[in-house]
Write a structure and sequence with these properties.
single chain, mainly beta, AOC barrel-like, 1 helix, 11% helix, 61% strand
Length: 166
């Protein structure tokens, strides 16, 4: 009984240390409308149902800071499913840090379409990896985006991360 209690306390402490190691981060990301993507295609199953792939270039107007490094620029590639004014998408984002290291993120979310352009977007993301100092990064967060008059999107990014002990 004493062994089980000690084991439970040690397990609890290990979880507390792991949870305490998470670091919060946030930033603002400006992304262009996908210009090099093929036009979305009619899915054929219902009127107004379209699917497509898009690629956007992005710049961090307010960088996220991760372990002393700051995000600089990136690209997002997504698969989009659109039905009338509703949109859902999932994809990958790669950001380059100020020292050249990179972070890899997967995301999924949805929003609204107005006048054949994305009007709002939001969802969840998680790290899938990193290079250099950011190798082994773990974490997740949320994003919310609004369309700018020029068709670009401004995203508010929030989340947390942990890095493996060195």
């Amino acid at each position: 009984m004493r062994f089980q209690t000690s084991l439970a306390i040690l397990a609890g402490l290990a979880l507390a240390v792991t949870a305490g190691a998470q670091t919060k981060t946030s930033g603002t990301l400006q992304c262009t409308q996908a210009t090099d993507a093929p036009k979305p295609m009619d899915a054929g199953d219902a009127p107004g149902h379209m699917m497509g792939v898009g690629r956007s270039t992005c710049t961090w107007s307010t960088p996220m800071e991760i372990s002393g490094l700051k995000t600089k620029e990136g690209t997002s590639v997504s698969f989009d499913d659109m039905m009338g004014p509703k949109y859902s998408g999932r994809g990958t984002h790669v950001s380059t840090m100020d020292n050249g290291d990179r972070i890899f993120v997967k995301f999924q979310g949805g929003g609204t379409i107005k006048d054949d352009k994305l009007a709002s977007d939001g969802g969840n993301w998680s790290y899938t990896g990193g290079t250099g100092k950011l190798k082994g990064i773990k974490g997740k967060g949320t994003y919310k985006g609004k369309t700018n008059p020029d068709g670009s999107m401004t995203y508010q990014i929030e989340g947390d991360y942990t890095l493996p002990a060195k």
